[in-house]
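FAQ: What does a multi-protein file look like?

Like this. Sequence, then tokens, then the next protein.
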Amino acid sequence: MTSEYIIKTQNVSKKFKKTYAVKDLSLSVRRNTVYGLLGPNGAGKSTLLKMITGIIRPTSGEIQFCGRPWKRKDLSVIGSLIESPPLYENLTAFENLKVRAVLMGIGKNRCYEVLQKMDLADAENKKTSEFSLGMKQRLGIALALLNDPQLLILDEPTNGLDPFGIEELRKMIRTFTESGISVIVSSHILSEVQQVADDIGIIYNGSLLYEDKIDANEDLEQLFMDIIRKERAS
């Protein structure tokens, strides 16, 4: 039986020396949805995503992928863009993709496919040192899509983008779920998440304070502020 959830964390914690970056956090990401992970800077969003992508290991707790314990081999069907895109600026867009594709045993045709998908086909032979920030972000997502992932993780993907770049990225994210990709988007920009996400989780001081489907009629900013204020006052 296929699990309804692509990712679940159960009481996951990450401790650095004596400080918890994430503590006893349990969230559930449904298949073929966009999950908006909300929280102020330093809330623990990136730490959580780094655990899901195997960059760092949890101190305790369990991560489940497709209804079973997460294994490193699951990274073959997980794509991610965490922090800045990992680009070789002296290489072209296509060459950046080809380097990754060779390492993963993926044919070069897939490089052309993801360039097309991210609207970068006209820039395939352009060095990435000449790219705008928005183009670099799109190429970073193209790299994350190379392995045709079941789960795509985007950490603050709109950072530094202008309003047009943000709108383009929002439209692209919606197309991912239509092609069977589940997406986790972390952000502190509430209005952007409200326009793209199906479900949200609100994280603060390493704890998940709220998780539910998005209500189109609800004021997400007010909900967010109420939850954070209540936690600060407790």
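And here is the next protein:
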Amino acid sequence: MAIEIINTKNAPAPIGPYNQSVKAGNFLFVSGQIPLDPISMELVNKTVDEETHQVFKNILAILKEAGATLDNVVKVTVFLSDMSLFAQVNEIYGSYFTKNEPARECVAVKTLPKNVNVEISVTAYLD
């Protein structure tokens, strides 16, 4: 199985020893995205709504670089800083996935990178 690293300048550069995404066969594994602006590498975090939209902008840029869209996403993992944010994030999440919603889990964790409130990773199937 061929493995291909897929990165784009239209999403934040990794802040550690990893890539934005890895294509393995027909699957694309997108690393967890936090609300970093890809140009300034500054956090976009005035509100949890703003954070969530920026995370999706980053995911969309990576998917586009791989020739995919949200329609290709089969699995999503959502990490929250607190489960009290679930309804707010879930509402925004639902505005991005409007049909054939992927499998998903959502968990609250003690701390996320750079103390953000939202991190999301996705797995896409490329046919």
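Q: Is there any per-entry metadata?
A: Some entries carry free-text notes. For the entry above: The radius of gyration is 14 Å.
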